Amino acid sequence: MKHSFVLVLVLLIPVIRAQVPHWGPCPDPAVQPAFNLKQFMGRWFEIAKLPAQFEKGRCIETNFTLSTDSSIHVVSSEILNGELRKIQGTGVIEDMKNPAKLGISFSYVLPYSPYWILSTDYVNTALVYSCTDILRLFHVDFAWILARTRSLPDATIQKAKQTFVENNIDVIRMIPSRQLGCDKNL
Ligand SMILES: *[C@@H]1O[C@H](CO)[C@@H](O)[C@H](O)[C@H]1NC(C)=O
């Protein structure tokens, strides 16, 4: 038991390093009431994110579309080393009673990761949170501030961060995403 526990920790260290580990289980934030999936679809730009791992791509955006089978088609793109890169994924509502609790997977071999819409007005901003418990001992989480435009007023970003904090989500290491020069040719 002890040995397998150590093994699990060793295997997880690269994952943990790249992310923001916190002791204890995941927080249980409130999510957007009466979430309207249809209105959430479309193009969202990444304004800020947690964790503050060294940033790779810039101009990160995600385009959500409803598929006919009521799953969500997800296309994320970024510019990395002067090249536009896209990855495709699938989203689902994991719990019909909590439609703002989506799950997204970017590979057939990976399980759905939580993708919870904590708050959105559908037309300006969306706050997204993803947290995974590890052995109930600690958790790793991601958080994003998304917007329909490539930038947001500082006051809006501060208010968004405050919402995370009120939900016991630590966003001290949240970093702004680079959205400059994105509409030019590569
Ligand atoms: C988003 O995806 C839909 C469906 O694939 C497509 O019609 C639309 O052009 C895409 N929008 C952007 C901005 O990529």
From TrEMBL:
Location (main, coarse): secreted
Protein name: Apolipoprotein D
Signal peptide: 1-18
Keywords: Disulfide bond, Glycoprotein, Lipid-binding, Pyrrolidone carboxylic acid, Secreted, Signal, Transport
Organism: Gouania willdenowi
Highest taxon listed in the record's lineage: Eukaryota
Gene3D superfamilies: 2.40.128.20
Cellular component terms (Gene Ontology): cytoplasm; extracellular region
Domain Lipocalin/cytosolic fatty-acid binding: 36-176
InterPro entries xrefs: ApoD_vertbrte (IPR026222), ApolipopD (IPR002969), Calycin (IPR012674), Lipocalin_ApoD (IPR022271), Lipocalin_CS (IPR022272), Lipocln_cytosolic_FA-bd_dom (IPR000566)
Family: Belongs to the calycin superfamily. Lipocalin family.
GO BP of this protein: brain development; lipid metabolic process; lipid transport; response to reactive oxygen species; tissue regeneration
GTP-binding in keyword set: no
Gene Ontology molecular functions: lipid binding
Cell compartments where the protein resides: Secreted
Pfam families attached to this UniProt entry: Lipocalin_2
